[in-house]
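Deliverable D5.2: sample structural annotation.
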Amino acid sequence: MRLVLWNLKKDGGPDKADGSFPDDWVAAMRFLASLEPDILPRQEVTYSDLRDNARLKAAEELLGMKGYLTPNGAGRNPTALFLKPETFPVSERVPYDGRFWRTPPTIVSARFADVPDVPLLLMSWHAAYNSPLGRQREADEVTAFVDLMARRRGGIIGAGDCNEYPVQQGEVLPPIDWSQVTDTRHLHHRTTLAPDGSRVSCTYWDRTMETVGLRDAARYAAHQLGQTGALAATAGHDRPDQGGPIRIDRLYPDAHLARAVREVRVHKTPWSDHDAVEVVFSRRLFAQGLRREVDPVPPPQWVFVPAA
């Protein structure tokens, strides 16, 4: 079973003058179809609501998936989530108050075909690009859904463009030297002030997800399966003014479902400023994870764990 996470820049561009879809969008959908995803969280589905959701419907047909598109918020690039009906025969949109999000996430309640009696919540998010405090608020909203699924004894996977950084410990990419970043707007958007006046990379999203019981799939693949390539950059390749390559596109299954991760690949693509992240799950272990028949993946050492 596969999950593919991708922020396709501005949905591949606007429609052509004759109303047909842009070449980059068509090529991008063919690329996604070749990966045969069962779960596809997408960001920047900018034009998919036009002409009665024409692009969304075309993507459904090309991918053989059911698509959900969330109305836009203050940002101009909404989120979407696609599911393979054979893998998730029951899926429905989850309503929520979108006022706390710059770009509201797409949230779907699903049932995995192999374990139809256990609920599974799936989220596609695009964290606020411009506000450390805004992202903190949004990350805290995610924790409410984690809490909800814990009460329902269900599983949860959240994925998207986090617009901030993983905790540096254990990463393969060097930390950003903010003293060398010349884009001062980006500096404000992605850092907080340390007591000595220096700038510190925002990592609230990552710390929050791991603290409440979700696990970074790429971190698990790198440190438990020996796949250090899973920690490759997903964006920032052509932005030395913003600090260079970064790993901001991440997905977080809950600690039981993380046991099902078998491989994480980062696909470089010519159609976006973000790379696509593919996660391969063991279907058997995914089912066992939903039933809580496997031990949860422990948190990283930097996460506070209360004494038993």
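Annotation notes: The chain has seven helices and 13 strands. Helices lie at 23-35, 50-63, 132-151, 184-190, 204-211, 217-224, 283-290.
The annotation will be released with the project's public dataset once the embargo ends.
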